[in-house]
């Protein structure tokens, strides 16, 4: 419900499914455009980064497909912040780490996409979706 509240404050109207095992956690609408949103949460252990598991807790397929939803909402209980990422743009589909600072740990490897910083994704991305028939 924390993400729902954040989206309402951002001017979106959330719709929650009445049944379980849906492809996404909610549908949000704004200005005649609908977005399918999947929510994941975690808690940073060190205040520098937070790792999110992006798999299904119980389903025949543990991994989401590229068409299951539009936006991935990631809530960190440590900071109380929610990040919004375009699902199709993510390079890794099983887990994602968002950083709060640019510290280098014992494993200094940074992939081709570089580090992702939590504060760069606090706004809901406006992506092209299907218009809601009115």
Q: Features of this protein?
A:
134 residues; mainly beta; Trna Endonuclease, Chain: A, domain 1; two-stranded antiparallel sheet
Summarize this structure briefly.
With 134 residues, this protein is mainly beta.
Low-confidence runs? none
Helix-strand makeup class? mainly beta
* Average pLDDT score: 84
CATH top level is Alpha Beta
Please specify the SSE layout and strand pairing.
Layout: H1 2-9, E1 13-15, E2 26-30, E3 33-42, E4 49-53, E5 71-76, E6 81-86, E7 95-99
Parallel strand pairs: 3-5
Antiparallel strand pairs: 1-2, 2-3, 4-7, 5-6
Q: How would you characterize this protein structure?
A:
This protein has one helix and seven strands. The protein has one helix spanning 2-9; strands spanning 13-15, 26-30, 33-42, 49-53, 71-76, 81-86, 95-99. The chain is globular, with a radius of gyration of 15 Å. The longest helix has 8 residues, at 2-9. 16% of the residues are buried. Strands 1-2-3-5-6 form a five-stranded mixed β-sheet, with helices on one face. Strands 4-7 form a two-stranded antiparallel sheet. The chain has a single domain, classed as Trna Endonuclease, Chain: A, domain 1, CATH 3.40.1350. With 134 residues, it is mainly beta. The chain is 6% helix and 30% strand.
């Amino acid at each position: 419900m924390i993400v729902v509240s954040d989206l309402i404050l951002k001017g979106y109207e959330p719709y929650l499914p009445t049944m379980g095992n849906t492809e996404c956690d909610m549908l949000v609408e704004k200005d005649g455009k609908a977005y399918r949103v999947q929510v994941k949460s975690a808690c940073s252990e060190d205040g520098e980064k937070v790792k999110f598991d992006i798999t299904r807790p119980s389903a025949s397929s543990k991994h989401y497909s590229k068409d299951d939803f539009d936006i991935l909402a990631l809530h960190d209980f440590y900071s109380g912040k929610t990040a919004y990422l375009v699902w199709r743009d993510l390079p890794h589909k099983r887990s994602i780490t968002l950083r709060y600072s640019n510290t280098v740990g014992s494993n200094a490897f940074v992939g081709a996409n570089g580090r992702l910083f939590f504060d760069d994704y606090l706004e809901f991305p406006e992506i092209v979706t299907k218009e809601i028939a009115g």
